[in-house]
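Example record for the data management plan.
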Amino acid sequence: MRSLVLSLGILIPFILFGSGITGCAKRPPAPEQAPPRAVVTEEEAKHVVVARVNGADITLTQLRQMMNRVSLMNQHASTPAPPEEVRTRALDQLVLQELALQEAARQGLRVDGMVVDSTMEKLIAKLGHEEGYQAFLEKQHLTAAEFRSQVERSLLTQLIMTREVVAKAGVSEEDVRREYEQQKARLVTPEKAAVVDVVFFLKQDDPASWKKANEVRERIIAGKEGNPMLLAPDGTFIAQDLELDKDKDPALLEAARKLKVGELSGVIRGSDSLHVIKLTSYTPEKQLSYDEARGSLEASLKAGAQLKRRQEWEQELKKDAKIELLDVPVQ
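Corresponding structural encoding:
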């Protein structure tokens, strides 16, 4: 049952966040222009038809709601889509949804009443129980029956999508193994080395600098637990926790590979200064086995297969459909 029902996290934005649209903002008329036409109210919009799909009406209310969803999904885009593009995309989604619902009816699919009841209970709780639910209905100009119908249609859409897209976009074991061989070079866990790094503010080519660095190293060995972080600073060095980068710290990483955890290095000539490091953890680079990589590879392949299948199915639905789009203002 779980695979056939929209999760609450998907259904709530689909139902709730798409219901608050009130139409595009009106622009004041220019001087000497005729007064603008009256804005269609939310109640009136329920009876204004903007498209017909095999004789089934799509209303202005549905269009406004879907335009709101499209806008919400693209609210973080660098360049917001113009209203006409939003309208076109919203209408296309509504047409496909209606075709999907008609196909579900043709196949005799129905959503179990207990599933609808359970989903409604969760949505009402999300809205703030009875008081919040009633306020929501009033704000959206919906009756309880209309809201339940929206929920049921959403669940039925998911049901037919599961049957026609998810179930028909399988990935074989052979497909996953082929993908593993093709992607094997990048399927590795990276090498990681964490150290306490003692960095010296001394000239690298000065023998006195190396002498000073070795003296500090001896102090670390003689100190409590050999912990560089407990050294009293004297202005010539600092101690810091550091995760080594193979590009930025090649000399330190090479030295770290030769150490055991807890072991102190000798004085190292780094790219810009002298160092002494203490290894705190090390994980070598590791090639992921097929079993380790299989889950993520299979999920990626399934996502691609489902997208392809969905596009094919949409074309199948549209092939012999009678679709009529009416030129009705959104306001």
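Summary line stored alongside the record: Residues 2-172+314-325 form a domain with the Triger factor/SurA peptide-binding fold fold (CATH 1.10.4030.10).
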